[in-house]
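Q: Start with the shorter request: fold the first protein.
A: Done. Sequence, then structure:
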Amino acid sequence: MSHSNPIRALIVDDEPPARRHLARLLATEPDISVVGECRHGLEAVARIEGLRPDLVFLDIQMPEVDGFEVVARIGPEHMPAVIFVTAYDEHALRAFEVHALDYLLKPVSRERFHAAVARSRRIIGTPEVETHARALTGVAHGQARFTERISVRHRGETRLIDIGEIDYITAELNYARLHVGERSYLIRDTLNHLETTLDPSRFLRIHRSAIVQMDRVRTLTSRFQGDVTLMLRNGVRLKSGRSYRARIRAAF
């Protein structure tokens, strides 16, 4: 769709370098005007309601009010077109699966940015914008609350791992390793963050460096010191931390 007036864009990200990077990229688009920048979700809600931009570059992972909650608070009738920006692959997949206009993974490349903007030009001003917003609002209200798939890089390709395939997850500094059968995949994420995205009826944090899928557990052995050893169906033994004993007992 052609636009006689400039597309009015709003940048929302709690990281100043990320906002500056997007602003520099947008400065190369002659038909897009940046009408404002927001540092957090609450500010974004106020600016979207006040400025009525055509397009929002919306960070997902923000303190207190995240990107999905911003969409929920605005509502589908008034939500402009959204291009999500995130450092986490599983967030990007979640946004893509519910038909967000597009998404950008940090660090945002110039090529990927231009492709997302080109798509936005075709959709802004059409009923499709509200369709996207309604789908996103459903996610924000919990219809797709927990991650169902995680993307991993393997031999130069991106693979989608269904949550049900994962046996357990371990921490490796600021990364996490997904253990899937005889394979394992290292992803750029932390266990603290993953724990918030996984269904707690299926996954249990048993140690500061381990999360297990509960239906993979065959036996539990308690030790005198308060530790618990979990034997998985595949023969792997995982030791719990003492502070996790109560939650393990409650789960099993």
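Q: Next, the second protein, separately.
A: Sequence, then structure:
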Amino acid sequence: MQAKRPRISNEERSQAMRRALLDAARALFVAKSYTETSTPDIVAAAGVTRGALYHHFEDKKALFQAVVETEAEAVARSIDEVGDGELTAIDALIKGGEAFVTAMTEPGRTRLLLLDGPAVLGPAAMRAIDERHARKALREGIEAAIAAGALPALPAGALTAQLSAAFDAAALGIEMGDAIADHRAALHGLIEGLAASAAER
């Protein structure tokens, strides 16, 4: 006698379909680009109907934004994981920077977050996504370091923007073939230099 298969709820089925669409779309956006990927391509790769796609997402752009948001969430999780444990404020910033750079080496991620994302969604939308995820973690780390006297009392928003730009530049450089160790060393030096300037004041 065959064992009964567990029943799948409508919610579970819906979430599985959404996940299939996100996975298929991500693979196609990375392989072909946003512009060259059509909705028929996506539904064929996901094994669902066009009706299912439009049930979950308003259009291709909304699906792309969901893919980008998912990637940004994954990067933020990597940063949060290194925040556990006893770290000084400066060590937490350095470890967070290392986690960001490592997370961005996931194939296709730099393209989605730093190249195609801004081109398709626009700078304002990408900044809003970043501020919910990696940039939020960075700002919290900077504010904690300033409060502890480990960084100079500079405007936290501006310092976050400039360090975030440095981290993004590192990710792009690594994507183009730079040695990851070189960028890690440079980011260490940048943060430690800021810390040294605080100690001198």
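Q: Describe the second briefly.
A: The chain has two domains: 7-57, 61-200. The radius of gyration is 20 Å.
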